[in-house]
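Please check this record.
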Amino acid sequence: MHALPPTESSPAAVGQQLEQPLLEVEGCLNLLGDALLRRDTQAIEQYAGRLHQALALAIASFSEAARAGSVPPHLRHRLVQAGGRVAAQRESLARATAALDRAIDVLMPGEPTGLYSSLGKSERKSLGGPSIQA
């Protein structure tokens, strides 16, 4: 049994192999950004899933190329920029989610907090003993 000789890849061939997954990530980021601006929840979910798959493929491709020591610097830079855009979109989505949570809390208050109500009396439940009033 003979092992196959390692394939020699030129830097141009490696660049072309890395270009496609990177273009897919960049395209998904653009589509997701547009969906976020439109606040289109179905599109956000769809493009977030596609972005997740594209990122996984791109990371695998870049990791393999990095082990071989042949990631072109301009593609590495574009991948880093894409990572920054992912982080920015994640932060934007987290802020929007927090704002929505605050709005829901205002519109639909939860259980009584044990503090004073709008009538000035405590809403705390008595623990069985007599209460002392001033």
